[in-house]
Amino acid sequence: MDWLCRLRQDFFYTFALDVLCMTVSYEHRLLFRHEGPLDMEVLPLLVHTADKALQKEGAKPPLRRRIVSSLIEVAQNIIRYAAVDEKYPPLLMLSRSDQGFVLIAKNLIHCSQEFFLHAYLRNLIQMPREELERLYYNTLTEGSYSDIGGAGLGIVQVLFKSDSFEHELMPAEGEYSWFTIKATFLL
């Protein structure tokens, strides 16, 4: 019976995400969406497409750089850390509202990462901007990198560059959870 609950949960989450996407594209104008395999070969095309969409929307160069660099950071985090399941590919989405732009990234993570990720993000979100900046530069100068090449700075950069940041962890099928980031960039 537990598998049925999981299946029902996954179905309603997927349905809710579809409704969210429809709402986002209704309330916001959808500029860019990629749902599928993501690797370092695909990333330059995605960056170019998003940058062109931002140019077409009239986003000024400093704002475009903040959004595009944040897109790169979340995409690299997905490439490095996401659980891979062909049935549930990662999602990157960029939309426009009256107030600015919204970047959404969604990917699977292993359940064992959920507690650490939630605690890490909660800690970062509570930090004052100056402390985030100090953490960023200290990590760069100390050179503390993980085994797979990351220094944990991607999320810090997105937090630092965005005007608001939200995250959500939701149960997915089996031993996985959905990790979703929403970063807003005001005009």
From the structure provided, what is the oligomeric state, counting identical versus distinct chains? single chain
> Pairing-aware structural class of the strands and helices?
alpha+beta
The helix count comes to 6
Global Rg: 17 Å
Mean pLDDT: 84
Number of strands: 5
Number of separate domains: 1
Supply the CATH architecture.
2-Layer Sandwich
**Percent range for helical residues?**
40-55%
Q: What is the CATH third-level topology name?
A: Heat Shock Protein 90
The span between the termini is 49 Å
User: Can you tell me the residue ranges where pLDDT is under 50 for at least 5 consecutive residues?
Assistant: 1-26
Describe the sheet with the most strands.
Answer: 5 strands, antiparallel
CATH class: Alpha Beta
Fourth CATH level, the homologous superfamily: Histidine kinase-like ATPase, C-terminal domain
Percent of residues in beta strands: 15-25%
Strand order, sheet with most strands: 1-2-3-5-4
